[in-house]
Each structure stands twice: as structure tokens, then as C-alpha cells.
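Lab notebook, bench 4. The sequencing result for the construct came back, and we need a structural model before the next group meeting so we can plan mutations. Quick request posted to the team channel:

Model the 3D structure of this chain.
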Amino acid sequence: MSDTALWTDTWFVVLDVEGNGKRPPDLVEVGIVPIEARTVGEPVSWLVRPESTITWYARKVHRISDEDVADKPAFNEVAAEVRTSLGNAVPIGHNVTVDLGVMARKLPDWQPPVALDTLRMARKAWPFLPTHKLGALIAHHNLGHDLPDGLQPHRVDWDVLVTARLFSLLVTELRVTTWGDLRAAGGIELAPAVQPKDPEHEFTLFD
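Done. Here's the predicted structure in C-alpha cell form:
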């Protein structure tokens, strides 16, 4: 896409995953919400049964237990649905390289050429803040209000919706007009089949 094109001409998906706490992490939950022409769509999510058990620390963070996923499908049973929802959109996430790394192992045919990281964007927009973790930014800007009942942090439906709100705030704060502006603000160029590594991204899946 041309750097001079309006950023709103591009289709985006906010992506979030929750894992089982192992290294490398296996998927427990996947969530996606589309953004088209500044409009945030409806989130879709899948609770899946990982190949190995969920660690106590992961359970503490996202509150998903082995019992919760015992009767859920394995990821390969829903992979086609997930891939369809991702489409050819540009993925967005907070510390997005972590989510991309997990998805690369599960969907090796999904190889977006570029992704957008709201962590990078937030550091440029608000360098004075003491932390740029997602939860801190959501609290600082009160972006968790008026969400549907039953949603909670570290579950993918909540995370993708608040990240979408954060992204919308950031494009305004950084005065983004074109795709080139957006790519400069938070773009990560991705080589096919290569998990990006960036020392700037020090957080874990649960941050």
C-alpha cells in the first residue's frame, strides 16, 4: 500500500491471545476485532484446548483453568475460522510481536508483511508516562468504561476492545493521516515465516 494513502483506507484487525504459561506458550484463547474506516467491529473469540496443561501462574492471570477448556476444540479444529477472520488485514496488538510469535507457530501460512504495535505508538505519544503496559494505559485514559458486562482484563474480548480504543486514541494523539504516518508511528516490518525479535519488547504474554 502507498505511504500517501489515507490510513483509514486499510483494513485492520486487533489480535490478542492468551496462553497456557509454558515456553513456548500454547494457545488457550484467541480474540480478533476488525477496524475499518475508524469503526471498531464486533469481537470474535475462540477458547481452545492446549496440548499441555495450563500453569498456575497463567490461571492466576487469565482465570482460565484446564477444566474450562477440557471440552473445547483443539486449535486445529478452529484454525480455518481464525484464518478467515484474520484475512489480509494488518494486525494490531499491544506488544504485538508476542501475539504474532504464538500465531506463527499455529498458523504458519498466515504471514502478514507488516503489523502495528500500540506499545511503540504509546511510547512515542506519551514518553513521560512511567509505564506503557496495556493495563496502565487503559486505566490512565479510562478506556475500559462502558464495555459489555462480563468482560475482564486478560481475557481476549476485553483486551481486543480496549486495544482498539487505545489505537483510536493514539492515531489522534500522533496526528496520523496517512499509511506512511501510521507505519512510522508503530509499524513492524515482518519477514515471511520469521518471528520478529525486538529488545524494546520486554513484556511477556501476560503484560
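The helical segments are 56-62, 66-69, 75-86, 96-106, 118-125, 134-141, 156-173, 179-186.
Will bring this to the meeting.
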